[in-house]
Structures are given as structure tokens and as C-alpha cells.
Amino acid sequence: MNNKKKIYVAIMGGIGDQIFQFGFATYLKKKLNCNVYLDVSYYESKLNYNNFKFRLANLSKKNNLLLINNISYINYSYLSYLRFVDLFKINKIIPWIYNFFFKVPIKFFIYEYWKKKKKTITKVNSYYLGYWHNIKYLRYQKKSINQNMININTNKPKIKRFIDKHINNKTVCLHIRGGDFANLKSHNLLDQEYYDLSINFYKKKLHFPIFHVFTNDLKFSKKILSKHKRNFKFKFIKNLGLSDIEEFSLFSEYKFSIIANSTFSLISTFLSVKRNVSTAPKIWLKGKKLEKEKQFSKLKFI
């Protein structure tokens, strides 16, 4: 196994992003038939301003993905600048240049640009840095993710009791992403209208629906929902004291959902075996629609 050629995939962000990157890594493993290392250095770097935790250790082990840390000589915060090395177009020298930056042999540094779409290079002895948001990388991993991550959490006694007692055909999970989204140039907070329309959608579809609110920003959420509190019941999941991975797993247990413009609720909905329909915002980030490679059939855009 150690004689196999290798690739390295950087893992960063919250659970939704981690799962996208996991899917991409398993895709590369199958396509290139090589050892795949997940570089989790991000979670000890300054870039991790949200203090996210890497949550896919068990899932990675079950899929024979190896974890690695601190494989570069430079600070992880500056690693993305290595994309400029490729601009020199000196193919014979580039691998030699990478020796100054990596503790492992790297021939190609492959960076996914947010704004510029390029065909992804799939070659061994490469380091991949990006989010790789594409549902196609996850379609054949749904069973493994559910078995080795989501089901483990939803079968915990505290969560199982909550599911049995509080989730039924009239409960809707509702995700409101606040906090950092208010300050990121690449993101935006969903407005009042989206949640009003989504709540009214379920008012017509269900008889006296009850909403379970998943959020990282209680103050913002209560403001968004204030006009509806006389007519509907809202239960805030944050009061259960669950971890992010436990909330993510619980979100998949509902038949109906209202998602935010966040991979947290998007991917939990995609992975759910119980979800019937989910409302999603027509405008995802900064005036743009959700890209086709992130869409799937359960979504009803509002």
C-alpha cells in the first residue's frame, strides 16, 4: 500500500464543506487507484475563524482515507498562494519548486477558483485545495455517509428520544444561517421574505405545522420569526446542547425542511432518506442562483 502513488486533499470549513471534499477525495481514489490523504491542517490555522472541528474521522477510516497534518513548510494560511507557481508554465521545474514548500513529494498543486471555472486536473502526486461543491461526487457515498456518520449520531439515546417524541409528519426543520454570513463578502443573509414564503408554503401543505429551528444565531432567528410566533410553534434545537455534527445528523431526520443558503442544510437534506420536500432560496449567494452541480430533486425553490 505504501508503494502506491498518492494524492492529498485539503479539508476545510464546516460539516457541509467537509462532506463535499470527502466526496471529491473518494472520487479521486477510485479514479486514480492511489492512496488518498486528507490534510486537516486548516483546523489548527487562523483561517478557521469559526473554530470548526473536523468531524469525518470515522467516515474517512471506513473509506480508507488517511489523515495527515502539517505537511507544508509554510503556514497553512498562505498555502493558497502556491497557485501562482503554475503561472510560470515551466513544467520540469515546478515539482522541484514544490520541494521547498511541502514535506512530501508534490508534482501538481491544483487550486479550485471560486470565480473562474476550470477543468479539474486528476493526476497522482497532486495536492488539491478547494471546496469541490458538486453533488456528483456524493451520489455513490450516501449509504456510507449515513451508516458511518449520520446514523451513529441519530442513534445516540438523547437524540433518539427527541426524534421519537418530537418529530412527526407535521414537523418541519428550519435552518437560519446568521453570524459570519452577515460579514462575508461572498455570502449574504436570507431575508424575511424567503422565510415568510416558506412558512406559508407549509401552512398550506400541512395542518398546523410545527417548526424546529436550527441556527447559529438565535437573536437573528428570533427576529426573522417574530411575526409568526403567534400562529406557529417554534422549537429551537440549540437549546438541546448538541454538537454541530449531531445537529447536522438530526436535520436529516425530518420529512420536510426549509434550508438556508448554506451547505449545512443543503447536504443534510441531500443525504436524508426521509426528506420529502425542502424549500430552498431561488437566490443563493450575492444575487446568484444555486449552481446546477449543487441541485437535486428534493428542492423546491422559493
Task: Note down, in words, how this protein is organized.
The protein is of the alpha/beta class and 302 residues long. The chain has 2 domains: 6-137, no CATH class; 144-301, Rossmann fold, CATH 3.40.50. The protein is 30% helix and 17% strand. It contains 9 helices and 13 strands. The strands form 3 sheets. A 6-stranded parallel sheet has the order 8-7-6-9-10-13, with helices on both faces. Helix 1 (15-32) crosses helix 9 and helix 4 (142-154) packs across helix 8 (244-251). The mean pLDDT is 91.
> What do we call the CATH topology of the largest domain?
Rossmann fold
Which strand order do you get reading across the main beta sheet? Answer: 8-7-6-9-10-13
Task: Please give the alpha-carbon distance between the first and last residues.
Answer: 49 Å
CATH architecture term of the largest domain: 3-Layer(aba) Sandwich
Q: Structural class, from secondary structure content?
A: alpha/beta
- Strand tally is 13
The total tally of domains equals 2
Q: Helix proportion of residues, in percent? A: 25-40%
Sheet with most strands: 6 strands, parallel
Radius of gyration: 21 Å
Order of helices and strands: EHEHEHEEHHEHEHEHEHEEEE
Give the overall form: elongated
Beta-sheet strand percentage?
Answer: 15-25%
**What's the CATH C level of the largest domain?**
Alpha Beta
Mean of residue pLDDT values: 91
List the total number of helices.
Answer: 9
List the defining traits of the structure above:
single chain; alpha/beta; Rossmann fold; six-stranded parallel beta sheet; five-stranded parallel beta sheet; 30% helix; elongated
